[in-house]
Specification:
By secondary structure, the protein is α/β, with parallel strands linked by helices. It folds into two domains: 199 residues, Rossmann fold (3-Layer(aba) Sandwich); 57 residues, Orthogonal Bundle (Helicase, Ruva Protein, domain 3), CATH 1.10.8.100. The strands form two sheets. The chain has a seven-stranded mixed β-sheet, with helices on both faces. A two-stranded antiparallel sheet has the order 1-8. Helix 2 crosses helix 3.
């Protein structure tokens, strides 16, 4: 009979031992902050496999926690910048990463870090590999758009329901967030992670996704105004186009697409034409 695979974090430390370590440090994990550790060593390695991390590449990790993923990345990458906002993890994070001279720790809020600051540690383009805090998923995705020009590839874990909606138009699950993200990145959905794998378990399952920077699907001069328009009209995505525009305060004299269609059926090119029509 084969031996069961270990679900250790590092050096044989499993869920029970981790709970003891956290207790000894006076740390209580917060679901509100999205603190759910991915402990399974196979899945940690698989995240790096998805990113195809090479020894010549630099990697950014968002939400390093105790450093269990940091350690796996460090074995493969040239350099790792691990960002963690919760300084309670500092003793554990520094202990687990101590053997790795290519790991740099930054105890700051990732959402407030400028690209220039990241470039003082990493060479662009760099990769992102992270088990991100679920409570900050939308804001982290938006921040990654801001950093897009510095990135070669992103592999992160998100809630399964978020991953399922990160599809370009047209699709019936479309949201203003998915429009914004898929305008800038090609999204590939990867492996499913059952909620019970995490410690502590979140309310929902997760999925690893791959985000590949891409050129815009349509050429828009004023992107800020374009996405403001999309946010306004997609509040009424279940209505037909005519009613959605009226509810949003727009009244173009001529529509470039059939007024009885729903917004969720429109392509990028049709959304662009609609935006240009309301600007006239």
């Amino acid at each position: 009979m084969g031996q069961k695979k270990s679900k250790s974090v590092y050096s044989g430390v499993g869920k029970g031992a981790l709970a003891t370590l956290l207790k000894n440090q006076g740390i209580t994990l917060s679901k509100e902050k999205g603190q759910h550790f991915l402990l399974n060593p196979y899945l940690l390695s698989r995240l790096c496999d998805e990113a195809k991390v090479q020894a010549t590449e630099d990697v950014l990790e968002i939400g390093a926690g105790i450093g269990n993923l940091t350690r796996v990345i460090a074995k493969r990458a040239r350099k790792v910048l691990a960002v963690e906002v919760d300084k309670r993890f500092q003793p554990l994070l520094e202990k687990i990463t101590a053997p790795y001279s290519n790991v740099f720790l930054l105890y700051e809020d990732f959402l407030k870090i400028k690209g220039e600051r990241l470039l003082s540690y990493l060479s662009a383009p760099f990769k992102v590999v992270s088990n991100i805090p679920f409570s900050s998923t939308a804001r982290i995705l938006q921040k990654l758009v801001e950093l897009k020009d510095l990135l070669s590839l992103v592999v992160i874990t998100v809630q399964k329901e978020v991953a399922d909606k990160l599809l370009p138009p047209p699709n019936r699950h479309i949201t203003p967030l998915s429009l914004y993200i898929t305008f800038h990145f090609q999204i590939e959905r990867s492996f499913l992670i059952p909620k019970g794998i995490f410690f502590p378990p979140p309310e929902v399952d997760a999925r690893a996704i791959k985000m590949i920077p891409q050129p815009p699907p349509v050429i828009i001069t004023d992107k800020e105004e374009f996405f403001h328009f999309l946010r306004e009209i997609f509040r009424y995505k279940r209505k037909n186009l005519r009613n959605a525009l009226q509810s949003s305060g727009y009244s173009p004299s001529l529509l470039p697409v059939e007024p009885d269609r729903r917004l969720e059926t429109l392509s990028w090119e049709e959304l662009k034409c609609l935006f240009l029509a309301v600007k006239k």
